[in-house]
Amino acid sequence: MSNLSVPADSVLACRDLHKFFVQGPEQLTILNDINLDIGRGERIAIVGPSGAGKTTLLHMLGGLDTPSEGSVLVSGKDIAKMNDRDRSRLRNRELGFVYQFHHLLAEFSALENAAMPLLIGGEKRAVAFARSRELLERVGLGHRLEHRPAQLSGGERQRVAIARALANSPACVLLDEPTGNLDGDTAESVQALLLELNRELQTSLVIVTHDMRLARRMDRVLSLADGQLQESVA
Ligand SMILES: Nc1ncnc2c1ncn2[C@@H]1O[C@H](COP(=O)(O)OP(=O)(O)OP(=O)(O)O)[C@@H](O)[C@H]1O
C-alpha cells in the first residue's frame, strides 16, 4: 500500500492520485499518478494545455470531487477517511477557494459575502462580521462594505472573493484563473494583493492559470500534461 506520511509543514498533499472518466466505451485517464506536497506559505502554479485536467486536479485537492484512486491529505489528514461532516468542516477551516467568476451571492452585501465561511462554520455573527470588515479593509474595500456584487467592479468582486477565501484563516487557498476575467491593470493589482497576503499571512497558494506571468510569480510552476505533473522550467 502507498505511504501516506507527509512532511511536517504539509498543508495539502496528494498521493498516487488518479482520475478516470468513463465516456461511452472509453475510459479517459485525466490524472495519472499525481504526487504533490504543498508546504506552509508555499506558492504553486499549475499550468498546462486546455483540457489537461488542471481544474479536475484542483477540485480533487479541494475535496470538491473524489479521486478514482489515491489520497488527498489536508493538513496531514486523509479526507477520504472522514465522514461528510468532518470533511466539510476541515475543508471550511483549512482551505479557501477563489474562482475565475467570483461566485458571490447576489442578494448579500460584500460584508455578508466575505463573512459567509465563518457563518457557515457556526461563528457568532458579531465575530464573523468584525473579521469580514477587517479583511475587506485589508483588501482595500473598507468603503464598499454594504455594496452588493452587482454594485461592485470586476476587480472589487474578486477582492471580496479573496477576503471570503481568507475568512477562516485557511492554511491554503486554491485559485482557478483568479484574474482571468479582469483587465490588465486590475489583474495586476489583484495579483499583487495575493502575493502580499501570502507573505503576510503565510497562506499557501495553489493557482491554476494560463497566465505565465502570474505563474512565474509563484515559487514553483508545475506543468500538467498527459495526466502527469512535472516541474516546469519556464
Ligand atoms: N464529468 C466529466 N466526464 C467526462 N469528462 C470530463 C468530466 N469532467 C472533465 N472531463 C474532461 O477532463 C478533461 C480535463 O478537464 P479540466 O476542466 O480539468 O481541464 P483544464 O486543464 O482545467 O482545462 P482548461 O484550461 O480549458 O480550463 C477535459 O477533457 C474534460 O472534457
Automatic annotation (TrEMBL):
UniProt superkingdom: Bacteria
MF terms in GO: ATP binding; ATP hydrolysis activity; transmembrane transporter activity
CDD domains: ABC_MJ0796_LolCDE_FtsE (cd03255)
The protein's name: Lipoprotein-releasing system ATP-binding protein LolD
Phylogenetic placement of the source organism: Bacteria, Pseudomonadati, Pseudomonadota, Gammaproteobacteria, Cellvibrionales
NCBIfam families (alphabetical): LolD_lipo_ex
Signal peptide annotation: none
Primary enzyme class: translocase
Keyword Ligase: no
PANTHER family, A to Z: IMPORT ATP-BINDING PROTEIN, LIPOPROTEIN-RELEASING SYSTEM ATP-BINDING PROTEIN LOLD
Cellular component GO terms, alphabetical: plasma membrane
Primary localization: membrane
Keywords carried by this UniProt record: ATP-binding, Cell inner membrane, Cell membrane, Hydrolase, Lipoprotein, Membrane, Nucleotide-binding, Translocase, Transport
Similarity section: Belongs to the ABC transporter superfamily. Lipoprotein translocase (TC 3.A.1.125) family.
Record-annotated ABC transporter domain positions: 12-233
Chain's role: Part of the ABC transporter complex LolCDE involved in the translocation of mature outer membrane-directed lipoproteins, from the inner membrane to the periplasmic chaperone, LolA. Responsible for the formation of the LolA-lipoprotein complex in an ATP-dependent manner.
E.C. numbers: 7.6.2.-
Oligomeric form and interacting partners: The complex is composed of two ATP-binding proteins (LolD) and two transmembrane proteins (LolC and LolE).
GO biological process, one term: protein localization to outer membrane
Alphabetical list of InterPro entries matching this protein: AAA+_ATPase, ABC_transporter-like_ATP-bd, ABC_transporter-like_CS, ABC_transpr_LolD-like, LolD_lipo_ATP-bd, MacB-like_ATP-bd, P-loop_NTPase
Keyword Transcription regulation: no
Cell compartment(s), UniProt: Cell inner membrane
